[in-house]
Specification:
This is ABC transporter. Keywords: Amino-acid transport, ATP-binding, Nucleotide-binding, Transport. One of its GO terms (molecular function) is branched-chain amino acid transmembrane transporter activity. Belongs to the ABC transporter superfamily. Pfam families: ABC_tran. Helix content is about 35%, strand content about 25%. It has about 240 residues and is an alpha/beta fold. The two termini are about 35 Å apart. Bound molecules: adenosine-5'-triphosphate. The site of adenosine-5'-triphosphate has 11 residues, from strand 2 and helix 1.
Length: about 240
Amino acid sequence: MLEVRGLSVNYGPFRALHDVNLTVQKGEIVVLLGANGAGKSTLFRTLSGLQRPSGGTATWNGTPLTGGRPEFNVAHGVAQCPEGRLLFPELSVEKNLRLGAFVHRRDAAGTARELERVYALFPILVEKRHDAAGSLSGGQQQMVAIARSLMARPQLLLLDEPSLGLAPLVVEQVFGAVRRVNEAGVSVLLAEQNAFAALGIAHRGYVLEGGRVSLQGTQGELLGDDRVRSAYLGV
Ligand code: ATP
């Protein structure tokens, strides 16, 4: 499981995360709700090994994730699908997917198997496999980004704002895909501003405000909480 204990992160004198505690159990989808600037991306960058914490610990099945070596974290089962997708638009869909398998570059047969698995999870990408990634619709590009992260064969997927800029119907398709990924055995930590869609698929969640966890609960508890309803669900 993912275990974050007392995690603090500073940018110079500015403290972006204060004493954050959270867990993701094997098989769970856990949502991290928070407005712009709440610290979601900072937490993900830290769990990916891109940002060193100033205090606290973060471990995946006991392995520390805070050593500052992103490739180590990927090799130990933690992959991030970044906000904004960050695809290579001129490269084909399949080349983008293969880049996600970088840590397994010495295992061509395993990568071929994984490619078939992600095409089975995202059938829409099969017919697009030779198209430039930049020519796909926003929703399809988000599917490519998620599929690319899966090529690293993660046990835990850190998914940053997958619904950003997508129409409601497309958001539904992307979240359906996230659910299938989870059912295929991948635990998911999902950062989202679209609380309604995210709580539709999450088992539990945390609310991050000003770099602190201000609230946590099950899907039902968060959907019924007045603060969540007014701040994130618009009701
Ligand atoms: P968004 O959804 O806009 O990405 P977020 O919840 O992911 O928001 P972060 O990007 O983690 O929030 O930012 C948390 C805080 O840290 C913000 O106040 C932001 O201005 C600040 N911050 C982020 N990156 C840096 C940096 N490199 N240097 C200084 N401050 C930063």
